[in-house]
Design a protein that fits this description.
- The structure is a single chain.
- The chain is of the alpha/beta class.
- It has 10 helices and 10 strands.
- The strands form 2 sheets. A 7-stranded mixed sheet has the order 1-2-3-4-5-7-10, sandwiched between helices. It has a 3-stranded mixed sheet with strand order 6-8-9.
- Helix 4 crosses helix 5 and helix 8 runs antiparallel to helix 9.
């Protein structure tokens, strides 16, 4: 693959690598199992903000044996209630910027996808879990509560009562069971999550940009609207997406026999 920019210096906790039409964002704190410090989260925010407009999709992954083992608990020791509120709200902003950003994001998961790491993963649009992945929410046993949007995003994937069970009992789901429940959409062999995520991102990047933008921004909101509101939103977004010059060109190619037809793989 053509690498158009190289990762940041090793001292950084996050790097961005451009490969053609996709960007690979890496957490680079393997000695801490990529635990999420305030500094790392600020770098995640800056990394996604720095992705150029020529990029059509991104992959988020972690160096070392784990995707992300959650919040760096050493930063909780001296934090009071006011600091805690602002900290949580800063995470909400950063992860919302990923979920409702310009481009779709594919998470490549391996090893620990735990606590804040699971919150980070669920802000992405597609998740690929390899066979080493495991999912957990240990906050209950540590006397804390999720603070990065997990109580909003995770129940949408697995249901509130299953999340409740995880937090009350410390239950851990291994890859196959976790994928079946909805933590990820793809399950691959150990060591193959990144390559699969890259392949998915490259496919996504070939879509019309406005269609991708419409999907990640409108579809989650339509799903939460009353039916009559959802129908109206769908109609408006459909009209906008199909009016884009690229959409018109693609429809014309299909009608004139140049567009690819859907086939069973």
């Amino acid at each position: 693959m053509d690498v158009t920019s190289k990762p940041d210096a090793p001292a950084s906790d996050v790097s961005v690598e451009l490969r053609g039409a996709i960007a690979i964002v890496r957490l680079q704190r393997p000695h801490k199992r990529n635990a999420l410090s305030d500094g790392l989260m600020a770098q995640v925010d800056a990394a996604f903000a720095s992705i150029p407009t020529s990029v059509g999709a991104a992959v988020l992954t972690g160096d070392g044996e784990h995707f992300c083992a959650g919040l760096d608990l050493s930063e909780l020791k001296e934090r009071d209630a006011v600091d805690g509120l602002h900290h949580s709200r800063s995470w909400h902003r950063i992860l919302t910027n990923i979920e409702f950003g310009r481009i779709p994001v594919v998470a490549a998961l391996h090893g620990a996808v735990v606590g804040g790491g699971l919150e980070l993963a669920t802000s992405c649009h597609i998740r690929v879990a390899d066979d080493t992945s495991f999912f957990a929410l240990p906050e209950g046993s540590r006397g804390i509560f999720v603070g990065g949007g997990g109580s909003v995003r995770i129940p949408k994937l697995i249901g509130a009562h299953r999340m409740l069970d995880m937090m009350l009992t410390g239950r851990v789901y291994k890859a196959a069971e976790g994928v079946a429940l909805g933590f990820a959409q793809y399950h691959v062999a150990a060591g193959e999550a990144l390559s699969k995520a890259i392949a998915i991102a490259e496919r996504i990047a070939t879509n019309a940009p406005m269609t991708n933008y419409s999907l990640i921004h409108a579809l989650p909101r339509i799903a939460e609207q009353p039916a009559d509101h959802g129908f109206m939103t769908e109609g408006l977004i459909s009209a906008i997406a199909q009016s884009a010059p690229e959409a018109k060109a693609r429809v014309r190619d299909f009608l004139e026999g140049r567009g690819a037809k859907v086939k069973a793989s």
